[in-house]
Please model this.
Amino acid sequence: MNKQETKKRIEELRLLLEKHRVLYHVHDTPTISDELYDSLMSELSTLEKNYPEFDSETSPTKRVGGDILPYFEKIKHHTKQWSFDNVFSLQELIDWEDRNITILKKTNIMDVPTYVAEMKIDGLKVILTYKDGVLARAATRGDGEVGEDITENIKTVKVIPLSLPDKVSITVIGEAWMKKKDLEKINTERARQGLALYANTRNLSAGTLRQLDPKVVARRNIQIFAYDIDGGDYKTQEDELKALESFGFLVNKDRRHCKTLEEIQKFYDAWVNKREKEDYGIDGLVIKINEKNIWDTLGYTAKSPRGGIAYKFPAEEVATVLRTITLQVGRTGAITPVAELTPVLIAGSVVSRATLHNSDEIKRLDVRIGDTVKLRKAGDVIPEIFGVFKELRPQNAKAFIMPTVCPECNSVLSKEISGKVTSVALYCKNKNCPAKHLEGLVHFVSKKGMNIEELGERTVEIFHDIGLINDFSSIFEIKKTDINGLEGFGEKSAENIITSIQKARNVPLHRFLFSLGIRHLGEQTAKDIAKHFNSFESLIKATREELVHVEGVGEKVADSIIEYFNDVTNTKILSQLLPQLKITNEVKTEGDGKLFNKTFVITGTLPSLSRDGAKDLIEKNGGRVSNSVSGKTSYLLMGENPGSKFEDATKHNVTIISEKKFLEMVN
Ligand SMILES: [Zn+2]
Model:
């Protein structure tokens, strides 16, 4: 971006953030996730830092909080309500500590800070003022200086003491939140009444405490964790939290006193994994220096206290710029457009590419080159683009046009027609297309195929380029001396590659079958076939009729298998390859497993097992996993938030079991 473009980008980001801020804070109806909002905010903040000439006091980056609604009485806070700065990595946390230590070195404080790590609850901050031990008023944070008077509403909240044991005058800060299951319940009810739904538990908490009728608040099960006292005389944050407990406030027990940043990191890592199981939303940890004298000495920046920081959990949604769209030719010849992105940290890893699937998907998203896109990644899912910020679209953004010829071999592309169905994707039909050939080799050695660990995609590409690998069998003819001495390969890596190739000579039938890249033959189908046939030889001899009768094999797959084994080129490849291998059939021996012949469908989030974990267990016990419910399904293994499969299962009278019941079956 040149200077003029940067200025324009800053202005557009400000407008967009302002729009979403109003939706979020004023109306409690956000249309984008907090994570996306944070991501745009962080881009703006970086640009303003790099281009101070475009910085502005009225920028959204200078704001502390939300707006106030006209119908609530305004309250000026006794002390300004700050918000913490965010960090997203251990390195940023280390930098924060370093900055503090530099400041402390200039003072006469000799103490080393320790830290209290508390949950950062996704809720609404409330400020409770007690006069002579009696709750005098309660307010929202508002913009940090002026909030809304919600005293009558707070008085209905059962976890808040209306009076304190001692007649003290203090201000207690807390976070109001609501349970995830209350969100579900209330949204179901609102859907029935045709009312707008709450996007998340934070909006529900805010929407609840900003009800004009306290009776509505009383009916909703609002919770408040107290975490701070303004105006008390405590030596440490820990003492303060203990005092709050003794006053009768609800204080979150999930906190830890840490002496080092490493300890904090351990606590953080543990919570990244278990936060989903908690009844409230947590979007990170709040790290506070425990010793109040150090806290006070460090003071404040323009926006935040220096002694505390919010250590956010890895974002699963971010905004980034789509720089260009490239094309990938798959081993089946399918042409896939791929978005090349400005590298961005998402769910803990850096992502620079995401598939756009096909031209229909590009049209549906209306995504153009130069656009700022919404990128999402949840759990193990591969990153996907799910939307575009059209407000940020540059004037020179270019619509993408699918090519008519293969980018690798220039053959004319065409759609696949099978029966009455025409494919969405375009295909290169050239049998000798080099891209298809290379992808086929990469697929052959991949984890779910021959599993030659040391032969990664890049290595296969290099070996292919120099003619070391031409086809499947040539892989097993590679010698150590062929590799040793190649640029980028030392003796050790040559040895590792050879060892890993040798290991792969012993291969289970289902993985070998999958590795061949027979069209429509997926991982599960390969397992189904292996369960039916004793050996690869008996499979080659199978007739179409025999294949169609194998559970899990449809006509399409059967045709494809027959076609594959009838092809002269394939016969030649196999005749060279088979003598190199020892094919075993481990699936077949699972026939006496506890779940033999049982078909499972999994839906919803299971309490302890991951999807893949459950799948592994089922398969290890001889069962199979299918993606959709049918009359053939034996069990629906159901967790929290099941999808439509639950209804399908009811329709087909399929037995529904919980994880607990399932674990009893296999143990
Ligand atoms: Zn091609």
The domain at 84-312 is CATH 3.30.470.30 (D-amino Acid Aminotransferase; Chain A, domain 1). The first helix runs from residue 3 to 26. The pocket of zinc ion is lined by residues 329, 406, 408-409, 411, 428, 430, 433, 435 (CB under 6 Å).
